[in-house]
Amino acid sequence: MDALTTRLSWFKTVILPHEAALRSRLRRLCPAGFDVDNLVAESLARAYTARDISRIPTGRGYLFAIARNLLVDTMRRDTIVSLDFVADLDMLRSDDSLEASLTARDELRRLHAIIETLPPQCRRVFILRRVHEVSFQEIAAQMSLSVSTVEKHLARAVMLVAKAMSEREEDGFDCNTRRAEKPAGDRGAGLRSRR
C-alpha cells in the first residue's frame, strides 16, 4: 500500500468517524454566530496532514485537541474571552478511556455476530481454541476429529472472521453507498454461502 492510500485509510477509520461528535460539541459551547463548520473543516484538514500518523493512538482525542487549539487561537485573535468560555473549552477534551471502552464493546459485539455466522464445526473449534484456549489435542478428542482436521477448521474460521471483519470495516465507512448497492436481505450472504 502506498503512502497516500495508507493515509486515506487511516483518516477514514481513525479521524473521520469523530467529525459529527466534534461538530456537536462545538455547537454546544461556541458563541452564537461562530462558524463551527469552518472550525471543523480546518480541524479535519490539520488532522489529515499529521506528520506521523502511526503515533496517534486515538483519533477522537487528537481531533478534539486540534479543534480546541484552533478555537483558543481564534478567540485570542478576535476578542477577550470570558473565563466561563475558557472553562467550557475543557469540554473539548475527550474521555479516551470511555471512548476506548465503548469501542472495545462495539468490536466485541461485531466479532460475536461474525462468529455466529461461521459453520458449526468451525465455530466450535474457534471458540474452544481462541476463547477457552483448549489445546488442539483436547478439541480433537472432544469433537472426535483428527488434530489435522481441527487445525483446518481453525484456519478456515480465522480466514472467514478476518474477511468478515474487513468487509464490515469497509461497510462501516461507506454504509450509505453499500446499502444502496446491496438489498438488506443479502448482507452476510457471502459468508453463509460457504458453509
What's the short story on this structure?
With 195 residues, the chain is an all-alpha fold. It has helices spanning 3-15, 19-29, 36-48, 59-78, 83-88, 96-116, 120-131, 136-143, 147-173, 175-181, 189-192. The radius of gyration is 23 Å and the shape is elongated.
- Report the total helices: 11
Number of strands: 0
Radius of gyration from the alpha-carbon trace, in angstroms: 23 Å
Shape: elongated
Order of SSEs, N→C? Answer: HHHHHHHHHHH
Query: What is the share of helical residues?
Result: over 70%
Largest sheet: none
Uncertain stretches of 5 or more adjacent residues = 173-195
Query: What's the mean pLDDT score?
Result: 76
Protein structure class: mainly alpha
Distance between the termini: 32 Å
Report the sheet-strand fraction: under 5%
Explain this structure to me?
- By secondary structure, the protein is mainly α.
- Helices cover 73% and strands 0% of the residues.
- Helix 3 packs across helix 4 and helix 7 (120-131) crosses helix 9.
- The protein is elongated, with a radius of gyration of 23 Å.
- The two termini are 32 Å apart.
Show the helix and strand layout.
Elements: H1 3-15, H2 19-29, H3 36-48, H4 59-78, H5 83-88, H6 96-116, H7 120-131, H8 136-143, H9 147-173, H10 175-181, H11 189-192
Helix pairs in contact: 2-3, 3-4, 6-9, 7-9, 8-9, 9-10
